[in-house]
Recover the amino acids of this structure.
């Protein structure tokens, strides 16, 4: 877990390869559910998403449960984007209890707000092919033009500073209580999310090592 733009998805994808367990992302789950034509859960998700509403916690719990019951998750899994609220913590505990499982470790990436604003506000995306660049860390060869397809690069509406700071406030208000709940359970490890991807991965491995190495 961690604030928007901290690199959760990038690190989770790499950990998936390292540990041989699936990266269970709520975003991917929602997209897959909506693409599953005829699925009752998928139809429910589609109604909420297409109306612009938030998917209710209980429905997210059903989707998470369905995903974790698959064979590829029997050896373990990496949750990304869930739980985000205390209500979702309770829902996840119910799901895992039914499966005879428990959360082994919660890795929370921590980065100063100013760094998150810098990362996200400098991001530019190609509206045609979806390639992502950054004005500082990965600038295009020609300013404002995609290296891949030559189309114009744009700043996503949610990548302007005012929106980013509001997202960070929402994270602080809703998600930090989740961290406190897992800290009380003794499974939370705070990880410095600053620096190069490889450096952060090494810190994550150190935080996870006590779980991976135990019998």
């Amino acid at each position: 877990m961690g604030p928007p733009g901290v690199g959760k998805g990038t690190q989770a994808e790499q950990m998936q390869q390292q540990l041989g367990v699936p990266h269970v992302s709520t975003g991917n789950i929602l997209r897959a559910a909506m693409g599953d034509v005829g699925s009752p859960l998928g139809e429910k998700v589609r109604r909420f998403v297409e109306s612009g509403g938030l998917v209710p916690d209980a429905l997210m719990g059903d989707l998470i449960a369905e995903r974790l019951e698959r064979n590829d998750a029997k050896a373990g899994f990496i949750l990304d984007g869930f739980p985000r609220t205390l209500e979702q913590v309770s829902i996840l505990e119910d799901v895992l209890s039914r499966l005879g499982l428990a959360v082994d470790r919660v890795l929370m990436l921590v980065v100063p707000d100013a760094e998150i604003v810098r990362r996200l506000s400098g991001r530019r995306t190609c509206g045609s092919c979806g390639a992502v660049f950054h004005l500082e860390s990965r600038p295009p060869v020609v300013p404002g033009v995609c290296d891949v397809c030559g189309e114009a690069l744009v700043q996503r509406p949610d990548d302007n500073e005012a929106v980013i700071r509001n997202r960070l406030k929402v994270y602080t208000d809703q998600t930090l209580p989740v961290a406190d709940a897992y800290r009380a359970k003794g499974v939370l490890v705070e990880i410095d999310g600053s620096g190069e991807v490889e450096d952060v991965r090494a810190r994550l491995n150190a935080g996870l090592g006590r779980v991976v190495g135990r019998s």
Q: What stands out?
A: The longest strand covers residues 106-110. Residues 211-215 have pLDDT under 50 and may be disordered. Strands lie at 23-25, 78-80, 106-110, 123-126, 132-134, 153-154, 188-192.
